[in-house]
Amino acid sequence: MNPQSPLKVDRDTRTVERIISVLLRAGVILSLLVVVSGTVVSFIHHPAYLTNGKDLRTLTTPGHALPDTLAEVWSGLLAGRGQSIVVAGLLLLIATPVLRVAVSIVAFLVEKDRLFALITAIVLALLLLSFFLGKAGG
User: Fold this and answer.
1) Measured between alpha carbons, how far is 86 from 77 in angstroms, rounded to an integer?
2) Which domain holds residue 86?
């Protein structure tokens, strides 16, 4: 049994919930800013997207304009390509809830709740495994 007072546990729980809330909000806002920045960069580099439907279709056709691998995203970021910046923003959005799960593991360990830490670690492992298997599957 935990010797901590209920008030301290409740305050600690609220602190963890606040940290997770800030993490999720910051992740979504940062992702939005990165996606919008990438969109602006794309239109600055290719102003014809605004006036030429054919050029815009090239940008919006699935599989044609966006980088497919992390290496392509990275090289596109280094080159300042808007499409790579947009994908980086989307990857940040995907990573945000995954990071929330990782923070939850730490929170459960701090609270000495090993069962929930283990369950959350399994959830994190399954999330990461699904990313790798999903990529391997094509």
Assistant:
1) 10
2) 6-98
